[in-house]
Amino acid sequence: MSPTERLVINRLRERPVDGPAVDRFLARWGSPIIEGERATFLYRGHVDQAWIRHRVVGLPDPLEMKRVGDTDLWAVTTVLPEGSRVEYQVETRQGEQYHRFNDPLNPRLAHSPLGSSSVCAAIGYRVPDWVVPDPEARPGTLVEEVVRSRALRRDQPVQIYLPARFNRATNYPLLVVHDGTDYLQFAAMKTVLDNLIHRLDVDPLVAVFVPPKDRLKEYPNHAPHARFVARELVPLLNERLPLVDTPEARCLMGSSFGGVASLSTAVRYPGFFGSLLLQSASLVFTDIGFEHGGGPAFDPVVKFVNAFRARPRQVVDRIFMSCGVYEPLITPNRSMVPVLRHAGMRVHYVEARDGHNWENWRDRLGDGLSWLFPGPQKFVYE
């Protein structure tokens, strides 16, 4: 008997099935059903067709579901390797009407600025314990400020994280976070910082969370944005807070276009920052021609990355990079690692069986922050 024949959904198909049998099946197994490296997605409803929609590179999208017997239960099974985490939705067709929504049989959701998605976690995936609020961890403080920026020609709101037991007699390293509001809301970053600092995995630090006004304009190698960060924001924070005023103590971070903003700012001000934390950075490039497939928003990104690849140079000392193997950006990120290393920068690169989403980036924060800002506990074990 093959592994697929032993799946519980196939055992259900082998016998007469009615509504009560479907009720019992769903009550016992739920959805999705994880069996080894296979995931079975289910939907129940009187529709003409049903699909699973996702953004996993390598899998057909959509995954077409099949009706189970003469019931209103639909199912599709796919391979999901150990440690995987996938965000998805259900799409249905009834006549000419199409609808797309989160899986009503699955209560597990992930959130982003674009809305929410259902989550399927394979065997071996666990939410890191440092993501959950720890009652023993003293909380840091978030202070809201507004910075008047000549470079951006506007008032720029920011939120400043001060660690627990903040002491003006102590000097702290500085972390500048692009898409700062999203990191706080969708990646639980304040909780993550509180926990990692409490556990001595990360040295106490000051972080400034900076939201963009127009990220597609300001993040891909935008001179006014870089000038704001390096020549206005950091000097102002140095005046107001007890920071270590050296490049080694300053780090830029961001995900997707925020990763491009971090690298391009460092390129415009080489040696001013000591490290970068890049998560699924949109480092799209072309080796020949001009067709990159990303649309007009990626034109300045490609121009910047192409120029850097043509003349790579050391702009910081260390870079932590992460990317999901299920996202289209995995190839550009893999390709940039040797370029950055060849330029003389130390690069710590990790991959995860995940996609282009905030929980992937959240789950990599422990590795990234503890490598860039190691606390006493990390030194003990390393």
Automatic annotation (TrEMBL):
<protein>
    <submittedName>
        <fullName>Esterase</fullName>
    </submittedName>
</protein>
<dbReference type="InterPro" id="IPR000801">
    <property type="entry name" value="Esterase-like"/>
</dbReference>
<dbReference type="InterPro" id="IPR013783">
    <property type="entry name" value="Ig-like_fold"/>
</dbReference>
<dbReference type="InterPro" id="IPR029058">
    <property type="entry name" value="AB_hydrolase_fold"/>
</dbReference>
<dbReference type="Pfam" id="PF00756">
    <property type="entry name" value="Esterase"/>
</dbReference>
<dbReference type="GO" id="GO:0005975">
    <property type="term" value="P:carbohydrate metabolic process"/>
</dbReference>
<dbReference type="InterPro" id="IPR050583">
    <property type="entry name" value="Mycobacterial_A85_antigen"/>
</dbReference>
<dbReference type="InterPro" id="IPR014756">
    <property type="entry name" value="Ig_E-set"/>
</dbReference>
